[in-house]
Q: What sequence folds into this?
C-alpha cells in the first residue's frame, strides 16, 4: 500500500516543456503539461469521452486538447470545449492533482486535496546555490527498497569499490549517530583517518588520509537530503567546525512509487568545490550516475529475489536508520488505512 497523503516528485521542471508529459504515479496514470502562462498542471491521463490517454493530445494556451476527438480540458480538469457541441455536460471532467513547482522539481499530491499543504514540501536551496546536474532513473523495485538502500551506507565499500566506496573496514567501524524524528530519521557516519576514494582524489587532490562524513536526512515518504564531505586529517571535520574546503557534495534524492515493484529515482549532485568549472560538474555527474546505476542493478536483483521468497530479512547493527525509516513508513500507511476504514464505517 502507498502513502497517498504526501508530496511526491513527479518530474524535473525541465521535463515539462511544450508537449504533454505522462508518468504513472502510485499506480495512477498522470499527464503533466505547462500552459502558456508557464504554470504546470497535472491531470488524470484519460479523456472522459472515450478513454484515450491525454498524453496523445496537444497543449493549446493553458489547456490540453484530447488527440482523439478534440475535447479540451483546463488545468483544473474541467472540459471547456467540445468540437461541434455548445453544451458541455457537468460530468465532462477529469481528476486534477495539486502541483507545486519548487527547487527545479514538480511536486504532486495524489491524496486528499484538503490536506495538500505546500509547506510540507522538502526544501533544497542548493539547486540555486551550487553547480549541479539532475537525473531520473526508472528502477524496477519496490520504492521502500530504494529508501532502505539510501539509509544503509555499509554497502558502499562492496557495491561502489571503484567510485565512492573506499576502505571496507572504515565503513564497518565508522562512528554512527542516528536521530529519529516523527516523520523520518537522520544519521551521520564518520570515517576517520581513512584513505580517500578515487573520486575524492580526482575532485580536490587529496594526497594523504582524510576525515570523511556522510549526513543523511530522510523525510517520509520519499525524500533524502545528503551532505557528504571530507577534509585532511587534523582540520577539525569531526569537531563539526565550519567544514569548509576539501570535498563537499550535496545530493538530493527522491523516490516516487510507480507500481508496487517499480519506482522513479530522482537525484541531483551539487558540488561546493571548484564551483566555476563546468567540466567538474560533468565529471561529478558521471561518477554519481555510475554509482547509482550500480545500486539499480543490485536493487532489481534484490526485488526479484524477494518476489520469490520475501522472508526472512534479518537486520544487523548497521540497519538502525533503515529500521527507523521502515517504522515511519509503516505507521503512515497504517494511519491512512485506519482513516479510510473510519470513513467507510461512518458512511
A:
Amino acid at each position: 500500500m502507498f502513502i497517498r497523503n504526501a508530496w511526491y516528485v513527479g518530474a524535473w521542471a525541465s521535463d515539462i516543456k511544450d508537449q504533454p508529459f505522462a508518468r504513472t504515479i502510485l499506480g495512477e496514470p498522470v499527464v503533466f503539461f505547462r500552459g502558456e502562462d508557464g504554470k504546470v498542471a497535472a491531470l488524470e491521463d484519460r479523456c472522459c469521452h472515450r478513454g484515450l490517454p491525454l498524453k496523445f493530445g496537444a497543449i493549446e494556451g493553458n489547456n490540453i486538447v484530447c488527440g482523439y476527438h478534440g475535447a479540451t480540458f483546463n488545468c483544473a480538469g474541467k472540459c471547456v470545449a467540445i468540437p461541434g457541441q455548445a453544451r458541455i455536460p457537468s460530468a465532462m471532467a477529469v481528476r486534477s492533482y495539486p502541483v507545486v513547482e519548487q527547487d527545479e522539481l514538480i511536486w504532486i499530491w495524489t491524496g486528499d486535496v484538503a490536506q495538500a499543504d505546500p509547506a510540507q514540501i522538502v526544501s533544497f536551496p542548493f539547486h540555486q546555490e551550487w553547480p549541479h546536474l539532475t537525473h531520473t532513473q526508472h528502477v524496477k523495485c519496490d520504492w521502500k527498497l530504494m529508501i532502505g538502500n539510501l539509509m544503509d551506507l555499509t554497502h558502499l565499500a562492496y557495491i561502489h569499490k571503484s567510485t565512492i566506496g573506499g576502505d571496507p573496514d572504515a565503513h564497518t567501524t565508522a562512528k554512527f549517530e542516528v536521530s529519529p524524528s516523527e516523520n523520518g530519521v537522520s544519521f551521520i557516519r564518520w570515517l576517520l583517518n581513512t584513505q580517500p576514494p578515487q573520486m575524492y582524489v580526482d575532485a580536490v587532490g587529496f594526497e594523504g588520509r582524510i576525515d570523511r562524513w556522510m549526513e543523511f536526512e530522510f523525510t517520509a515518504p520519499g525524500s533524502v537530503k545528503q551532505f557528504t564531505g571530507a577534509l585532511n586529517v587534523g582540520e577539525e571535520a569531526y569537531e563539526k567546525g565550519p567544514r569548509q574546503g576539501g570535498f563537499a557534495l550535496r545530493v538530493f534524492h527522491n523516490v516516487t512509487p510507480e507500481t508496487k515493484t517499480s519506482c522513479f529515482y530522482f537525484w541531483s549532485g551539487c558540488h561546493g568545490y571548484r564551483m566555476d568549472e563546468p567540466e567538474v560538474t560533468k565529471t561529478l555527474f558521471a561518477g554519481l550516475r555510475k554509482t547509482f546505476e550500480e545500486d539499480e542493478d543490485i536493487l532489481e536483483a534484490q526485488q526479484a529475489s524477494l518476489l520469490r521468497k520475501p522472508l526472512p530479512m534479518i537486520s544487523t547493527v548497521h540497519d538502525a536508520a533503515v529500521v527507523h525509516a521502515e517504522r515511519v513508513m509503516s505507521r503512515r500507511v497504517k494511519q491512512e488505512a485506519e482513516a479510510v476504514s473510519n470513513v467507510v464505517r461512518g458512511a
